[in-house]
Design a protein that fits this description.
The protein is globular and about 50 Å long. It has an eight-stranded mixed beta sheet, sandwiched between helices. A hairpin with a 2-residue loop joins β1 and β2 (about 45). α1 (about 50-55) packs across α2 (about 70-85). The protein has a single domain (about 5-20, about 35-290), classed as Rossmann fold (3-Layer(aba) Sandwich), CATH 3.40.50.11550. Helix content is about 45%, strand content about 15%. It is built from 13 helices and eight strands. It is an alpha/beta fold.
């Protein structure tokens, strides 16, 4: 989720939330089966899931966006995972939803040592992520069934909240030790964040915005760093499929290009979309592939 959501009420659309979203424990949408065939588009127009999978097979990283509370988006993420796995079993799944310190819980899930309720407790899912577990459960089950490693990508929430409050320079030595390399002068990324915030937060309180923007970049850079570290392991798979809010994927500006700076290239970006959203996304070049139901 976008780090800026930590301090700005109502912020969330850029991260992939639809309104306030459906939080864990609340009655809400359940995952919908992705229709078959899905409609797939690339920059030249109509494409296919087969072409997407071929492109993914040539990539080190595949980034699939989401609106966190949209069941169709999660169904499409699972379909993409199935297609990529069907062509090459050598992959990991990177999760924005899980913060780095909780990797051991994902490992235990992968070994079959935790049930779903115990996994949610171990991940502190309800408080650290909060969106309906049922939307994500099929992906976790798919990974466990096929013995696909799950990777905790995200920065600790406490760290990004602290940056949004006091800024990077005011962090204590222990907090600074957690920090990845930051690139804060990407004009395109900054403009995208300002636009997603309604186009005004960047000027109304520049110092506050700079802190919140640094928190956002810390989130993206940490996930990019996690991707690069995982793929540098001696036992690394050939690629990773990253599941993250659409704001972290659009135009490659959030995680993908920051991971590419660390050597993780080529990459492919994918955005799920309702039919009426497809034309705008394709014309804007928001992703390499747009998949619609």
């Amino acid at each position: 989720m976008w780090a800026l959501a930590l301090t700005l009420p109502g912020w969330g659309a850029g991260c992939g939330a639809s309104g306030a979203g459906t939080r864990a424990g609340a009655a809400g949408p359940r995952p919908a089966a992705a229709p078959s065939p899905l409609l797939v588009f690339d920059g030249s127009g109509h494409s296919s899931m087969g072409r997407l999978a071929l492109a993914a097979a040539a990539a080190r990283a595949v980034y699939v966006g989401e609106e966190h509370s949209n069941p169709h988006h999660h169904a499409i993420q699972l379909r993409v995972l199935e297609e990529v796995y069907g062509r090459d079993h050598s992959l990991a799944i990177g999760l924005e939803m899980v913060q780095r310190p909780f990797q051991p819980a994902l490992d235990r899930w992968g070994r079959g040592e935790l049930g779903e309720d115990a996994l949610q407790d171990a991940l502190e899912w309800k408080t650290r992520w909060g969106f309906d577990w049922a939307l994500y459960a099929p992906i976790f089950r798919f990974a466990q069934t096929h013995k696909i490693p799950l990777v905790a990508l995200n920065a600790r929430r406490e760290l990004t909240k602290r940056i949004a409050k006091v800024g990077v320079d005011a962090l204590n030595p222990a907090e600074k030790a957690e920090m990845p390399e930051l690139v804060l002068d990407d004009a395109d990324h900054r403009a995208m964040v300002v636009e997603m915030m309604g186009g005004h937060h960047g000027t109304s309180d520049p110092a506050s915005f700079d802190r919140m923007y640094a928190a956002q970049v810390t989130w993206d850079e940490t996930m990019a760093d996690s991707v690069a570290r995982w793929l540098a392991r001696a036992d690394a798979p050939r690629r990773i499929v990253v599941l993250a809010g659409e704001g972290h994927v659009q135009h490659g500006l959030g995680i993908p290009k920051r991971a590419a700076r660390r050597g993780i290239a080529p990459f492919v970006t994918v955005l799920p979309a309702a039919r009426e959203e497809v034309t705008d996304l394709v014309q804007a070049g928001a992703a390499d592939y747009v998949v619609s139901w």
